[in-house]
Design brief:
By secondary structure, the protein is an alpha/beta fold. It is built from 14 helices and 14 strands. The protein has a domain of about 200 residues: SGNH hydrolase (Rossmann fold). It is globular, with a radius of gyration of 23 Å.
């Protein structure tokens, strides 16, 4: 009996340690560097990541900067990593290389070895610079219809899968996190094409660079790897007592006759557009468990007055059974157009402005600083001043995006259907 008790206690402790370690991957005040090739330079999945970290708030005051560079490989990045990225002093980095590393054909031993070695070098340099959390991302996929035809797509997706396995192996060998981008993109692509047809591309019209739909899947993979638990908040309503309570980040302002006014500083992640459009995120959420695993704003209702009730949130209404309400409904999933949609878009516009600046900052200024010092060493102080000013401006743009996240007042109305 004592042995069983000790085993159970040990398992509990192990689970608690694992959970704690998972929670610590993203911490308040972190600078997050999102690193990759031209897919990262598109500034879509990187924007979605920053949207989530700023508005959904798994941790407080997290700054994101993107370091995408068209045509880049893991081997190329590691050579300029110290100058171009580590000067930003990130505490967490995500990498997403492989699309160019594979050479757009069957994977050769030389390319595989170079990819493995380069991933190791990136990890070594990050650890040396005291980067606390390293997330090695796999490459995504190419579109089965848009990338040079189905035959070539099959060949290259096999290569990308093999590179994904290498990235996973290197991450595990070094005790760092791994983000599997390839698998969910492949799975979502198959399901989406089955519903919307072969013209619905998940890896972009050129077969390589995704639209918003594919980038949502990429953001999902990295946010999961960061350990985000998806608990945006919970609103509990007791209609019998006409009372409501809310979790951290949400405050009940008033309760009257089934109407509940709430103020929220934590936003749900908001989707947009025509589900059939690849430039929208609304269609892709059906094929990836983003809402279930990352985006839960739950409403639970006790003592519902009828077998079915109408819930109105903002300008939209839906009907739910008493049992559904008692178990809890995910407002973020049920109400795509909701009171947070417009505030979310405003924050995202500020995030895009910041990340657009970072592309020029890195590619036109930061990466050239060593050359400037060689050409005019007597102006080293002035060159350092330019870099400091540019980085300070980037910080100001982040602050502007962060301060755009303002509390949102919204109303839930729950009515009996007779």
């Amino acid at each position: 009996m004592k042995t069983k008790w000790l085993i159970a206690l040990s398992l509990t402790v192990i689970l608690q340690v694992v959970a704690a370690a998972r929670e610590q991957l993203i911490q308040s005040g972190d600078m997050v560097a999102v690193i990759g090739d031209s897919i990262t330079e598109q500034k879509q999945y990187s924007v979605f990541i920053e949207d989530y970290l700023l508005m959904c708030q798994p941790a407080e005051r997290v700054q994101v900067a993107q370091f995408g560079w068209g045509g880049e490989t893991a081997a190329g990045f590691q050579k300029r990593m110290r100058n171009d990225t580590l000067r930003f002093k990130p505490m967490l980095i995500t990498t997403c290389f492989g699309m160019n590393d594979g050479g757009y054909g069957p994977l050769t031993k030389e390319r595989a070895d170079l990819y493995r070695t380069s991933q190791q070098q990136i990890i070594d340099k990050a650890k040396k610079a005291n980067v606390r959390t390293i997330i090695v991302g796999s490459p995504g996929c190419v579109d089965t219809d848009k990338f040079r035809g189905p035959k070539f797509a099959t060949v290259y997706n096999k290569t990308l899968g093999e590179l994904s396995d290498i990235a996973r192996d290197v991450a595990e060998a070094n005790g760092v996190a791994f983000a599997d981008v390839h698998t969910p993109m492949m799975e979502a692509m198959g399901k989406a094409k089955a519903k919307y047809g072969h013209e619905y591309h998940v890896a972009g019209p050129d077969g390589v660079h995704p639209d918003a739909n594919g980038h949502l899947v990429m953001a999902y993979a990295f946010l999961k790897a960061m350990g985000c638990d998806g608990e945006i908040g919970e609103i509990k309503v007791d209609l019998g007592a006409n009372k409501a309570t809310a979790s951290h980040g949400h405050k009940v302002l008033s309760s009257q006759n089934g109407n509940f006014e709430i103020e929220s500083s934590r936003y749900p992640f908001c989707f947009h557009g025509n589900p059939k459009s690849t430039s929208a995120t609304a269609g892709m959420m059906e094929f990836v468990p983003f809402n279930d695993e990352l985006n839960r704003l739950t409403l639970t209702v006790e003592n519902a007055p009828s077998e079915n009730c109408k819930v109105t949130w903002g300008g939209s209404s839906k009907e739910f059974s008493r049992d559904q309400l008692a178990k809890g409904i995910n407002l973020a999933a049920e109400f795509i157009d909701n009171p947070f949609s417009e505030p979310f878009r405003k924050v995202e516009a500020a995030v895009r402005k910041q990340q657009e600046y970072e592309t020029g900052l890195v590619k036109s200024v930061i990466t050239k600083l060593p050359d400037f010092r060689k050409l005019v060493p007597e102006e080293a102080a002035a060159i350092d001043k330019i870099a400091e000013t540019a980085l300070r401006h980037d910080k100001d743009l982040f602050e502007s995006a962060a301060t755009t996240v303002r509390p949102v007042k919204h109303t839930l109305m729950i009515e009996a259907i007779k």
